[in-house]
Amino acid sequence: MTTSETPLRIGLAGTGPWARNTHAPALAAHPGAVFAGVWGRRAEAAGELAGEYGVPAYAGDAGLDELFAACDAVAFALPPDVQAPLAARAARAGRHLILDKPVATTVAGAREVAEAAESAGVASVVFCTLRFAPRPAAWIAEQSAAGGWFTARADWLGALWAPGSDSEYAASPWRRERGGLWDVGPHALSVLIPVLGDVTALTAARGPADVHHLVLRHASGASSTLTLALDAPVGAAGVELVLRGEHGVTTMPGWDGAVDAFAAAVDALTGAARTGEAHPCDVRFGLRLTELLAEAEELARAGA
Fold first, then answer.
1. What's the farthest any 2 CA atoms get from each other in the chain?
2. How many CB atoms lie under 10 A from the CB of residue 1?
3. What kind and span of H or E run contains 118?
4. pLDDT digits 0-9 by tens, 234-244
């Protein structure tokens, strides 16, 4: 537990678009954190990003230990199966964790991080953007308190590789390999589970391109359907999440970028570190998301 009111020193592991566009500017601007440095797998990339903010740059295996020594917490912006072993290593070094989603793409990898964090007694937050973006987060809390939901539908379709797409994330090898199930699936699940309860039964099927259709039963008795993809046509792309129940129909509001959401995740980690109370969106929740996605992937593969 961190008892001091001194701002947390937070290091950043990662130098890609997500680190550049979200993590670094949020850390640099946050009044309750000290941006402690940037670690990258490539020294040149780490130096370039660190130089923008006037913080130390670290690279390589030895550099990772140097980053740990310079900070109280580490924010990860790395591919999931690169993130997992490094996050477990950070936890064993006594560093609090801000993890990207998914924590890993294997249950074993996510469990290693969760067990390392628990053994070390460090705080953790998984940055599921909508749990921290102001408007969606308030809506999730409101719908969770209201209850009485009968069913839900989540459509999350990206067009990352469609002709004419200029997304920086289109060059991501892990997204190309694992698709929308693993990239946008955590977003949808992170909204549905706090409102409808944990998933008690799941089935999944493949659609065209990388589309996955999931049907879930929740602990509340409600059901939900999810359609997830990154490789949809531009005209089909979009995000919509709708709840239906005894109070009527409600649709999740949109959000403006991720920098403010990441700042809220920093606040959440700081609170958990100082109080010792686990945040609802911690590494154990990240492990649960990985379990569900791995099960859905296996069921869809078997059905195909």
1. 57
2. 11
3. helix 107-120
4. 999 999 999 99
Q: Which residues of the chain have pLDDT under 50?
A: 1
CATH number of residue 164's parent domain = 3.30.360.10
Query: In sequence order, which residues have a C-beta less than 8 Å from that of residue 44 and are 6 or more positions away?
Result: none
Q: Looking at the structure, tell me whether residues 263 and 153 fall in a common domain.
A: no
Contact of 123 with 269, CB cutoff 8 Å: yes
For residue 127, which of 195, 67, 76, 180 has the smallest C-alpha distance? 76
pLDDT at 4: 58
CB contact set of 276 (below 8 Å; sequence gap of 6+): 1, 121, 123
Q: At residue 118, what is the residue type?
A: E
Are 210 and 248 part of one and the same domain? Answer: yes
The distance of Cα 259 from the centroid of its chain, to the nearest Å, equals: 13
Contact 100, 77 (CB under 8 A): yes
Distances (CA, A) of 115 to 76, 84, 86, 108, 289: 18, 12, 13, 10, 15
Cα–Cα distance list, 225 to 34, 54, 204, 214 (Å):
41, 46, 10, 6
The domain in which residue 65 lies consists of: 8-130+259-280
Calpha distance 158→176 (Å, rounded): 12
- Same domain? For 94 and 179 the reply is no
